[in-house]
Design a protein that fits this description.
About 0% of the residues lie in helices and about 50% in strands. By secondary structure, it is mainly β. The strands form 2 sheets. Strands 2, 4, 5, 6, 9, 10 and 11 form a 7-stranded mixed beta sheet that branches.
Length: about 120
């Protein structure tokens, strides 16, 4: 059974940082394209960042330079570092996994809430 478990969300002030974690079980993060998405209130879910099975990273253009995706192969975990947060970053953040050759997402986590507010 595959599980993706996000953690690390919470309330943070504007300008602050958070590090989200995604613990994977049932799959190896080095064998999948691991991704982060987010869904803000009243908006559609949007792609944030990805790290390929080969370790190549990619980001949504609007988030480049502020968010950093990484992974720990030994712990089988994926991370998303959020920097210089603004209220517009408030959303539920989801971890997801796709087979390298697949255009669709195979597995989703349950999400972790990030709220940016003073």
């Amino acid at each position: 059974q595959v599980q993706l478990a996000e953690s690390g969300g919470g309330l943070v002030q504007p300008g602050g940082s958070l590090k989200l974690s995604c613990a994977a079980s049932g799959i190896q993060v080095t064998s999948y394209r691991m991704k982060w998405y987010r869904q803000a209130p009243g908006k559609q879910r949007g792609w944030v960042a990805a790290i390929s099975d080969g370790g190549v990273t990619d980001y949504a253009d609007s988030l480049k330079g502020r968010f950093i995706i990484s992974r720990d192969n030994t712990r089988n975990m994926v991370y998303l570092r959020l920097n210089d947060l603004t209220p517009e970053d408030t959303a539920i953040y989801y971890c997801a996994a796709s087979r390298p050759w697949s255009a669709s997402t195979d597995y989703w986590g349950q999400g972790t809430q990030v709220t940016v507010s003073s």
